[in-house]
Amino acid sequence: MAELSVNKTPFHLHHWLPGLLLTVAIAGTTAWLSNQSWLAGAGFGALTLAIILGIVLGNTLYPQMAGACDSGVMLAKQRLLRLGIILYGFRITVQQIADVGLSGVLIDVMVLSSTFLLTCFIGIRLLKMDRETVWLIGAGSSICGAAAVLASEPIVKAAPSKVAVAVATVVLFGTVGIVLYPMLWSLLPTVSAEHFGIFTGSTLHEVAQVVAAGHAMGAEAENTAVIAKMLRVMMLAPFLLMLGSWLKRQPSHNAQQQAISFPWFALLFIVVALFNSLHLLPANIVGTLNQLANLLLAMAMAALGLTTRFSALKQAGCKPLLLGLVMFGWLILGGGALNVLVQHFMA
User: Per-residue confidence of the chain (347 residues) as pLDDT tens digits?
Assistant: First the structure.
């Protein structure tokens, strides 16, 4: 997940306030709904409900409000998400990071590389899609969803319409994963929360989606999933360097040297977790920071849903959807097999 600009407009509170208030309203509504027994019993947590409600509004009422709200919504989707993830580090300790360890890093590397290469083979060779769209869907599926798509765009030099298609594709299937992954875990009672958390973090598309799915599975699975995901996110910078280097050697592609932005928020998440392991802050302050992280993450979920447009997928046709679906299946089945393989040999 790269450091992406929210807005080039100078800071004025009235630009951001309507969108931020909208995401707060959605977050508050879904927090209340998640406490209702008829929804809580179905496994729908506040974060899952926030993105679902955001998608519903984003494809119905929100387009009429977008002019006034977009700046604040994008702020919540990008900057507040990263801040929420950094603060999430106050739930993590050094021991939990060590438990993920080398096996988690190896799983992330294997899932990332196999997913991107398989996306390229299926999309370009079998489905005969244009290479730019395939590369963007591959980046989003293998690393960190929409942010990886946007970070890859300057290197790939894709048209805005292709970027929109790739973003919509990875967000769509990642959102399905928020509901599907907890259901899968309930069908696998012998799999530990730690191992399923690593599986979730190494295969689900977006950081926000990993948090939401993990949240529905309990604290241990959520914490492990977020750690595995952050390790995967930090692989974005070397991935972009390798992609840019490879494209420069392709005679048919006009790749230019681009500055690669390191995802500093992922590193700060680790730093905060290390600090939290020292237990220097009083418990009440840590609790307040955790509540703030919950609010920021719920606002980011709402914003992600509000900016998901089904119209972009409709205009693109069936091939990007088919590719996204095949890769979603690979991440679950192939990614699951890679998890089992590495866990077996490194146990």
Answer: 444 444 444 556 678 999 999 999 999 999 999 888 777 666 667 877 888 899 899 999 999 999 999 999 999 988 898 898 889 889 888 888 888 888 999 999 999 999 999 999 999 999 999 999 999 999 999 998 877 887 787 788 877 778 878 888 888 899 899 999 999 999 998 999 999 999 999 999 988 889 889 988 998 999 999 999 988 988 887 888 888 888 777 766 555 555 555 668 778 888 898 899 999 999 999 999 999 998 998 998 899 889 877 787 777 789 999 999 999 999 999 999 999 999 888 86
Contact 29, 172 (CB under 8 A): no
What are the Cα distances from residue 41, in Å, to 35, 132, 192? 10, 43, 22
pTM reported for the whole predicted model: 0.79
First to last CA, the chain: 30
